[in-house]
Amino acid sequence: MVQGVIYIAYGDKARAEALLAAASLRRHNPDLPVLFLADKVLTIGEGSWWTGQADAGWKGRGAKVSLYDLSPFDYTLYLDADTRVHADLGAIFGMLADGWDMALAFSAFQGNVLMWHISPSERAATLKPCTEPLALQAGVLAFRKSEAAKALFAAWREEWARYGQMDQAALLRALQKAP
Questions:
Q1: What is the pLDDT of residues 126-146, one digit of tens each?
Q2: Which residues of 133-156 are buried (b: 16+ CB within 10 A; e: fewer)?
Q3: How many CB atoms lie within 10 A of CB 17?
């Protein structure tokens, strides 16, 4: 079982944030390998590497919805570039080892502020099949290589391609197709 962390960083600001984020990861989890999906070379030393992708879609979202195929790890933790780690992350990988296909956190934005940042047309398309969804955030997510996770990521890519910008509403629609 190979565990690792992936950061996506397209653009100067995202690359700077990803390096700070990875430094926080190293303070608490020094042995976890790190993969940067970025438009320029990034490294934090031994145990990290960079993979370039010419077109990652809007703000790297195309890479995010393709993480299943891009990850070399059996157990992957994706962290947004602005996420800082404050403790050991072993429990997250433990959930995957216990048999869970994916671990996600719920979004703080529920109810009337649900998907506030999504275009009105995409928000309506998402709320039509699921009228009272639990909004999930996709800035911290863990998954293991499994048929269920593979199906979810395929549905997520397909749903994201409909609008090609934010990924959260597409994730909720994908969960309706591949729970």
A1: 666 666 666 677 889 999 999
A2: bebbbbbbbbbbbbeebebbbbbb
A3: 18
